Amino acid sequence: MALTNKSNTSARTFKHLSEFDRGKIKALLEEGLSPAQIARRLGRHRSTISREINRGTTTQLRSDLTTYKAYFPETGQAVYENNRLECGKKLKALQVEPFLQYAEKKILKGKWSPDVVVGAARRKGKFDKSKMVCTKTLYSYIDRGILGVRNIDLSLKTRRKQRKPAGRRHKRLLGKSISDRPESVDKRNEFGHWEIDTVIGKRSKDSALMTLTERKTREHMVFLLETKNAEAVDKVLGYIKEQCGPLFTRLFKSITADNGSEFSSLNKHGTNIYYAHPYSAWERGTNERHNGLIRRFIPKGKAIKDLTLEQIKRIENWCNNLPRKILGYRTPIELFNYEIQRILETVPDMQPVS
């Protein structure tokens, strides 16, 4: 006598039960069907149905305080979803705990970004590749609360939309336009081209900071101004020129500024000066970015006059010792010192710049 399959439903292989399947199991159990009968009705293996019933069965309390056991689809679904979270590759966090501790310290105390932490650690070989995670995973761990770092602790976690340069005409032009700046400056192939700006504090008439950023190396210089005007800016540039001596024109081949009145006398210092278009801060994007780094320590509304020279120098050193992805996770001070050394090698008997 030939055996026949009592179910006209073809068996499905390696397909997980759905919420709808669990609802049908509940209904068939209430009809009094056994696990084997339910398996034939649903075209599943009886072991699959038995395991599901065991997962979803819980003990309930009646009004008369007696207990009973019953299958609940919701319970089965919840247990299934929890088990799925435990499947696959195990969390690597426990295997890379020293690296995560290092990352937490650098982000919270060093104010590094997660990408800088990963990139600098790889470049310097601080951890074996198997003992650390990539940038994406580190961000994921932060999102999931695995580190003692929160998203609010990250200075930047946004994807900024690039602005397209718009053709603007100068209402006031203090000198040569940025449009006349050589292409070599735009491409950052040559050392010695700077961007300049000021950072104001609580009041615009209060003390201010003057910042200079070298486009190729990202070296960032920060100086305290007694007030935000052309005389104060000229005084600082005069000091820099005096310190550099005959090397000034090789270290400062050009400076790009906005059309603020404090930069109206830059041309007197013997270097090429270019002025950006109005309302076009992105044309001095390198300097703007670094001024944003300064704002991590000096938020808007904080009086500049309350800062000591030691505090300003500490902020400057932090900026110049921060590894950068765009520099291959090297630091601005590394590249700046390299460029200075190259210049000194071409000038005999020249002392290093102070």
Task: Explain what the structure shows.
- The protein has 354 residues and is of the alpha/beta class.
- The longest helix is centred in the C-terminal third of the chain and has 15 residues, at 230-244.
- The chain has helices spanning 19-30, 35-42, 46-56, 73-85, 97-108, 114-124, 135-143, 183-186, 230-244, 248-251, 285-294, 309-320, 332-346; strands at 57-61, 67-71, 176-177, 193-200, 208-214, 220-225, 254-257, 272-275.
- The chain contains 13 helices and eight strands.
- The termini are far apart.
- The chain is elongated.
- The strands form two sheets. It has a six-stranded mixed β-sheet, with helices on both faces. Strands 1-2 form a two-stranded antiparallel ribbon.
- Mean pLDDT is 83; it is low at 1-5.
- A hairpin with a 5-residue loop joins strand 1 and strand 2.
- The protein has three domains: 19-85, Arc Repressor Mutant, subunit A (Orthogonal Bundle), CATH 1.10.10; 93-152, no CATH class; 176-346, Nucleotidyltransferase, domain 5.
